[in-house]
Specification:
Blueprint lengths: L40 H8 L2 H25 L7 E6 L2 H12 L6 E5 L3 H9 L5 E4 L6 E6 L5 H16 L4 E6 L12 H24 L6 H29 L7 H26 L2 H13 L15 H6 L4 H14 L6 H30 L2
Parallel strand pairs: 1-2, 1-3, 4-5
Antiparallel strand pairs: 3-4
C-alpha cells in the first residue's frame, strides 16, 4: 500500500517534470477550468437596451433632429422683415414715398424720413439703418446708399426691393456702397466664423475635461482649478483667432485687439457654461450645451442671414445668446466704429459670469450633500 504522495502513483505530479498537469491546480495545463456562464439572447438584449442606453441614444437622436429643424427653420425661406431704410426727400413727397415703402406686402422695409443726406450717412455708418434712399427732386434717378459691411444678404434684399418700388413710380435708382466690406471679407461672414470657432473652443475644452477627469470634479478645489484653467486657455484662443484673422489670412485687418478680446470672452463664456451644465446634469450636460450653442445659437447668430432676414424665433433669441452677441459686436467693431457695442459685450460677459457662478454653486451644493450624513 502506497502513501498518498508516493511518486510511484500515476496521479501524483512529478516535481521534476514541470509540464506534468496538476489536477489540484486549475490554472495548470490539462486542468479542468470552470466554463463561463452562457449568456442567452434575452441577457444580451437586456444589456444592449438598458434604460440608460435607451435614454442616451434617444437624446442623441433628438439633438440631431433638433439640429435639422433649427437650421432649416432659420434658413430655408429667408424673408426680409422691417429692414430699416431712411428716406431723404422733399417735404411734399416724403410722406408718400415713406408710406409706399412701408406699404409693400409683407412689410419687408421700415422706412422713415430724415432731414438730409449727412444725417443719413452718419446713421448708416453707425449701424442705425441699413440703407438711405436720397430722392432727386429735379430728375427721375434717385440714389441708394447701402452698407455691404453689415451683411451682403441684407444689401441684396434692399437692392431688390427699393428699385422695384421706385420702378412703379417711373423712377430708377443708382446704388452706392457707403460702408464696403474689406477685401478679405468678400462674403462678410468672417465675423460669424470667428464667433462660432471661439464658442466651439470653449465648450470642447469643458467637454474634454469632463471626459478625461469626470463631468463632476471630485472636490470643490478641483472645480476651482478647472475653472481657473479656462482663463489662460481663453486668452490663448483669443490670441490665436486674432492672429489667424488678421496677420495670417488678412480676412479682417486693423482690429486685432477687438477680435482678440471678443474671441477670448466667447471662449470663456462657452467653457464656464458647459462646466455648469456638466455638474448639474452629468454627461447629459454636453447635450444641453450643444442644444444652446450649436442647435439654437449658430443659426440665430446673424451670420449667414442677419436678423432682418431670420424667422421670428431665431431673430428674437439670437441677440441674447453669446453667438449672436459676438457676431454683432465684431461686425460693429470692424465696420461701424464700434457703435453701441457695449450691450453686445455685456451679453457675453453675463453668460461667462453666470456660468462661473452656477458652476461654483452646483459644486458647493454637491460637496455639502456629500458631507451631510
Amino acid at each position: 500500500m502506497t502513501a498518498p504522495d508516493d511518486p510511484r502513483r500515476p496521479d501524483t505530479p512529478d516535481p521534476s517534470r514541470p509540464d506534468t498537469p496538476d489536477p489540484r491546480r486549475p490554472d495548470t495545463p490539462g486542468s479542468q477550468r470552470p466554463e463561463p456562464p452562457v449568456e442567452t439572447f434575452a441577457d444580451e438584449l437586456r444589456d444592449a437596451i438598458a434604460p440608460r442606453t435607451v435614454l442616451l441614444v434617444t437624446g442623441v437622436g433628438l439633438l440631431c433632429l433638433g439640429f435639422v429643424l433649427s437650421y432649416l427653420g432659420a434658413f430655408h425661406n429667408p424673408k426680409p422683415h422691417r429692414i430699416p431704410v431712411d428716406v431723404v426727400a422733399p417735404q411734399q413727397v416724403s410722406a408718400r414715398i415713406v408710406g409706399g415703402l412701408n406699404g409693400i406686402d409683407g412689410h419687408p422695409l421700415r422706412a422713415r424720413a430724415i432731414a438730409d443726406e449727412a444725417t443719413g450717412r452718419d446713421r448708416l455708418t453707425h449701424a442705425k439703418t441699413a440703407a438711405v434712399l436720397i430722392v432727386n427732386p429735379s430728375g427721375k434717378q434717385d440714389r441708394l446708399l447701402v452698407a455691404s459691411g453689415g451683411g451682403a444678404t441684407v444689401v441684396n434684399a434692399v437692392q431688390r426691393i427699393v428699385p422695384s418700388a421706385e420702378a412703379t413710380q417711373g423712377r430708377s435708382v443708382a446704388v452706392t456702397d457707403a460702408v464696403p466690406h474689406q477685401d478679405g471679407d468678400g462674403s462678410t461672414a468672417s465675423v460669424f466664423y470667428i464667433a462660432i470657432g471661439s464658442v466651439l473652443a470653449g465648450y470642447l475644452l469643458a467637454a474634454l475635461l469632463g471626459m478625461a477627469k469626470g463631468t463632476r470634479p471630485a472636490t470643490f478645489r478641483r472645480t476651482l482649478w478647472r475653472l481657473g484653467a479656462t482663463i489662460p486657455y481663453s486668452l490663448v484662443i483669443g490670441l490665436g483667432v486674432a492672429a489667424i484673422t488678421g496677420p495670417l489670412l488678412g480676412a479682417l485687418t486693423g482690429h486685432f485687439g477687438a477680435v482678440f478680446a471678443i474671441s477670448a470672452l466667447l471662449t470663456l463664456a462657452a467653457a464656464t457654461v458647459t462646466m455648469s451644465f456638466q455638474i448639474l446634469f452629468g454627461v447629459v450636460g454636453i447635450g444641453v450645451t450643444i442644444l444652446v450653442f450649436v442647435i439654437i445659437g449658430n443659426p440665430s447668430a446673424g451670420g449667414a442671414y442677419p436678423y432682418p432676414l431670420l424667422a421670428p424665433f431665431w431673430r428674437v433669441v439670437g441677440r441674447w445668446l453669446p453667438n449672436g452677441a459676438g457676431v454683432d459686436a465684431l461686425r460693429r467693431c470692424v465696420y461701424f466704429h464700434a457703435a453701441d457695442i457695449a450691450p453686445r459685450v455685456w451679453v457675453i460677459v453675463v453668460w461667462a459670469l453666470a456660468g462661473t457662478a452656477l458652476t461654483l454653486v452646483a459644486a458647493a451644493t454637491r460637496k455639502h450633500r456629500a458631507s451631510t450624513p
